[in-house]
Write a structure and sequence with these properties.
By secondary structure, this protein is an alpha+beta fold. It has one domain: Arc Repressor Mutant, subunit A, CATH 1.10.10.
């Protein structure tokens, strides 16, 4: 889904400045589309709910993989 990727990248660049609905509107999504995308990103564990200034969602921090093979 192109809009989901576009929203995810915008969320990363946003850094908590705009709330999630305003951010969606900024890239051309209505409130329902934004909420659907947020639900999908949450279910994929790409974002998490955090009270982060204006926006309540932020990208999850990916754990670094360790190479245990020798």
């Amino acid at each position: 889904m192109e809009n989901k990727d576009k929203y995810y990248k915008a969320l990363i660049d946003n850094d908590g400045q705009l709330n999630e609905i305003d951010l969606g509107e900024k890239i051309g999504l209505n409130e329902n589309e934004t909420n659907e995308i947020i639900a999908q990103l949450l279910s994929e564990y790409k974002i998490e709910y955090t009270e982060n200034r204006g926006c309540n969602y932020s990208p999850t921090k990916r754990a670094k993989r360790r190479n245990n093979s020798k």
